[in-house]
Design a protein that fits this description.
This protein is mainly α. The protein has helices spanning about 1-10, 15-70, 90-95; strands at about 110-115, 125-130, 145.
């Protein structure tokens, strides 16, 4: 009986190397999964901020175009910021290119541009510039834009 107790004590003294390595492996896998999830959230936030900065930068270039040309881009949209006008009178005023390339958001989509008519009491810019956002669908909640949708009824 004495021998049995000694053997039981010897076997129950601690963890084996395999058990310790297994626990460490599980902790590493769980930590990696948590780290990847945190990185993805941070990347998504960074992409949205980058798209917002891109929209703001394009708006500033549109304002420079307006200062030189005394008008906002029309039907050709953001391409007017890249190409010198063919009309001689307009070509003399043009100090571009205001954009080197067609702006592309972090999700690989070209920025959208639209000239809008404002009423007398509106203070927004007479144009809209926006990114379709991570879902790449126009008109959804994740669009990143230079105007507010808060309409007061």
């Amino acid at each position: 009986m004495v021998r049995k107790n000694r053997r039981q004590r010897r076997n129950s003294r601690g963890f084996t190397l395999v058990e310790i390595l297994l626990v460490i492996g599980i902790i590493v896998v769980l930590g990696g999964a948590i780290g990847i999830a945190a990185f993805r959230r941070a990347q998504a936030g960074a992409n949205k901020k980058t798209a917002g900065l891109l929209v703001n930068t394009v708006c500033k270039q549109i304002e420079l175009f307006h200062a030189d040309m005394n008008r906002y881009p029309e039907d050709d949209g953001l391409n007017e910021l890249r190409k010198k006008p063919e009309d001689e009178k307009e070509a003399k005023k043009w100090n571009g290119p205001y954009l080197e390339n067609q702006p592309v958001d972090p999700w690989g989509q070209e920025l959208k541009y639209e000239k809008v008519e404002l009423t007398e009491d509106e203070t927004d810019k007479p144009y809209h510039v926006w990114s379709t956002g991570p879902d790449k669908e126009d008109g959804t909640d994740d669009d990143i834009k230079n105007w507010s949708d808060t309409d007061e009824d």
